Amino acid sequence: QAIERFHSGGRDEHGANILVFLSMLYAYEGRIFKSRKVLDMGKTLGEIKESYLLNNYSVLNILEGKMTTDDAKQFSDALLLTCDPYERILIQCNLLVCYTLLSEKERAEQIMLEITSQQFEQFQYEEFLHIVYQDLLFYFKADKQCSQVDKYRQLLQELIENAPSDSMFVPIAKMQLTNQSSPNLYYSQFPFRVDFLGCWNIEISSDLENY
To answer: What is the pLDDT of residue 177?
Structure first.
């Protein structure tokens, strides 16, 4: 209904943003085919940043188990197309997972150093911190750096304990931390957390209030 209203008001760019958000929600449920189809619909409406499309399609490829070296290139291209520090860290986390899965050790290490050299904890948002901590934990496990594994396990545990009880990430984080999974929590089956761009900052201007 919202997409139809935006279309009637000549604001398809907002409809496209909603489809990006909807694509993410379907992916969180494990409905990857539906997620990709919805993202394709948003792409036809236009106005979606190229960095979002490059990142989000490659995230879907990882979740489907169909990742290739092309996805590493797409993440790298997405990184070049954004200067937003928040978005850059999210893309770098996805790229870290990608290189780790591809066993590109030197490139993975470089991305890890880029992530950890930044002040990412300035973004005091639990969902974001879960993404960063979880992906760093995944990398350090693969690289067998036990002290760093212990560090990020502890950071994740503290994040879980201090989060509001209704935080969306908590059930997934608890399962990932104990190597468990649930069919009701699709992301819990992965030891990492690849994630999407363009889903958390939808802004609707007041001139659309009558539509």
So the answer is: 94
Express as a percent the part of the chain with pLDDT over 90.
72
161 burial class (0-12, 13-18, 19+ CB within 10 angstroms)? Answer: exposed
pTM of the model: 0.91
Cβ–Cβ under 8 Å, residues 119 and 138: no
* Main-chain phi, psi angles of 117, to 5 degrees: -80, -10
Phi, psi dihedrals of residue 182, rounded to the nearest 5°: -140, 140
Number of C-alpha atoms within 13 angstroms, CB side, residue 134? 29
The answer to whether the beta carbons of residues 149 and 137 sit under 8 Å apart is yes
193 HSE (CA, 13 A, CB side): 26
Helix (H, G, I), strand (E, B) or coil at 121: helix
**136: amino acid identity, one letter:** L
182, β-bridge pairs = 185
Three-state DSSP at 104 gives coil
